[in-house]
């Protein structure tokens, strides 16, 4: 039976009959006595427990009305200390504001909220200091598990860890990865079907966990499809800005080389946005002269001009899967048998930025 105190002040009747604040917090037991109900009934309703379904809606309404009137709020800290639980998960991402991270975080948050957990999200911005410091700070705040998203890590903490796009084989870490071979086949196969043979590629930054696996998959798919990737048509993103500027600068360097290409496969959607801008500034029509494919299908790709053809990663679903996995590992401990790698599949999304190759 829960008898937690509250952190807000209760109210009592004054001599004039009104409600005025008291200096002592209201307990669950006192609120139950006021309603002539058992503390167990109040606990079920206020905590949203499954057993609350058996309590009449009228009674539930009375409980919530009284809780609001007396400003009742359960002392979660006291309950956590008694149970030795924090019901919190740490999440590390490169940038909270970029489309990739925010979509994965959306899935993580939705699933954790359903399970009664909160997440403590923090961005390391590719800082070595942050990458060393943040895991320890999350551990000291008693998180029960950690999810890292597109993040190189040296986690030395005795907690369940799930890595989204980590591509590492570390003991005790569950990796959620995209089928990059299939993604490359879809993108290059689409361009080849449109008649493109001279295809440029923008690789990701060195710090991104996906850069090497994706590039290897692109090379593999090119060989399978009989396409040749000219080194002069391959550039790499530089800098850690989450804006389209990195793609803009990469495309400028590519154009400055004077290499001939009729299609461009960008590392992600954001860099594709910048590349389209650079192509247009040089008088290259998209998709009339150069087709452009992005990667991820973040928010805004369908509303870009032209709407961006892209490889869709199921980012929200990857976040849900990461949250489900870390919760299972917390709940089951070492008794649960979860594969070290969980692979998800990409999808080709064709929009306006790709079209037939122009005449030679």
Radius of gyration using CA atoms only: 27 Å
Number of helical regions: 11
Please count the beta strands (DSSP E, at least 2 residues each): 14
Give the termini distance in whole angstroms: 79 Å
Q: How would the global form be characterised?
A: elongated
Helical coverage, percent range: 25-40%
CATH class of the largest domain: Alpha Beta
Tell me the CATH superfamily of the largest domain. Response regulator
Strand content: 15-25%
| Domains (count) | 3
**What's the rounded overall pLDDT mean?**
88
Order of neighbouring strands in the sheet with most strands: 4-3-5-6-7-13
The biggest beta sheet, please?
A: 6 strands, parallel
**Which fold does the CATH topology of the largest domain refer to?**
Rossmann fold
Structural class: alpha/beta
Order of helices and strands: EEHHHHEHEHEEEHEHEHEHEEHEE
- Identify low-pLDDT runs: 1-21
CATH architecture of the largest domain: 3-Layer(aba) Sandwich
Please explain how this structure is put together.
The structure is a single chain. By secondary structure, the chain is of the alpha/beta class. It folds into 3 domains: about 10-80, 434 Repressor (Amino-terminal Domain) (Orthogonal Bundle), CATH 1.10.260; about 85-180 and about 315-345, Response regulator (Rossmann fold, 3-Layer(aba) Sandwich); about 180-315, Rossmann fold (3-Layer(aba) Sandwich). The chain is built from 11 helices and 14 strands. It has helices at about 30-35, 40-45, 55-70, 75-85, 100-115, 130-140, 180-195, 210-225, 245-255, 270-280, 315-330; strands at about 10-15, 20-25, 90-95, 120-125, 145-150, 160-165, 175-180, 200-205, 235, 265, 290-295, 310, 340-345, 345-350. The strands form 3 sheets. Strands 4-3-5-6-7-13 form a 6-stranded parallel sheet, with helices on both faces. Strand 10 (about 265), helix 10 (about 270-280) and strand 11 (about 290-295) form a beta-alpha-beta unit. Helix 1 crosses helix 2 and helix 5 crosses helix 11. It is elongated and about 85 Å long.
